[in-house]
Amino acid sequence: MEKRGLLVISHGSREHGWIALVDETIEAVRSQLGTELVVEAVFLELVDGRLIQDGINRLLAEGVTEALVLPLFVSSGSTHVDEIGWALGVYPEARTATELEPFELGGLCINYGQPMGEAAEIDSIVLDRLMRLSEEPSEEQVLLIGHGSEEAGFRESWERELSGIAERVRVRAGFHAASIALLLPSQVAERIDTIRRDRPDLRILAVGLFLSEGYFTKTVIPRHLASSGGLEVCRYDGAALMPHPQVAAWVVRQAREWLEIRERGLEREVGN
Q1: Which residues, 6+ apart, have CB-to-CB distance to 145 below 8 Å?
Q2: What's the pTM value of the predicted model, to 2 decimals?
Q3: pLDDT tens digits, 218-242
Q4: Are residues 210 and 265 in the same domain?
Q5: Which domain holds residue 221?
Q6: Which Pfam families does the record match to this protein (predicted)?
Q7: For the chain, how many structural domains are there in total?
Q8: Whole-angstrom distance, CA of residue 165 vs CA of residue 127
């Protein structure tokens, strides 16, 4: 008899608070899924005893035969999503250099999911955060800030997905304009300079699209804003996607959609 599991992978951090937000989210996922799936939360690096191979081993020890592996990352432009997929045997080769070694699956059948990307849940999170910063949307410019990548193909995915989010929240809330900026390559100062030159009358609402609060939200983004004088003209919330409940809602939706597909597949196999 098949037993199914869910392996949620995020990057990892040395900061306890970063990890705690992930754990809080995954506990909400477990609560909503109940006994539908065996759920494990693991990290790409930096968290001893909770790395990807550790999670695979725990699923196998629980008797899990098939698992959805869900990369809890912001964008498909993350090179980590690609290298993890390669190490899991999903992709024939990694598109960038990686220090990962292929994981030992021990017969575990896996289905590799997609990161949050342009999911409806991420739109809701961003909109909630913007509305807490906003006074009059028609007089404001949205600036979404993402990690980004210097790698060809990955950068374009970051830009496409963030641009889609920015435009949708602009339309929904009636903001005057919306744009994006990546940290890699460094675009924040250029974007702020352009906004200040073209529309100095607009308030800039800056929101970082990072999974959990930590070094990037507390140090890197403020530093980029300060280098362009952006701290004086931007309202920046310093928050992250978690602990918003829509992150857990996204994980649960992915899991249940996968379960439904698997159940339908079994029905077809049984009923021919």
Answers
A1: 180, 181, 182, 183, 188, 206, 207, 208, 209, 221, 224
A2: 0.93
A3: 999 999 998 877 777 899 999 999 9
A4: no
A5: 120-236
A6: CbiX (PF01903)
A7: 2
A8: 9
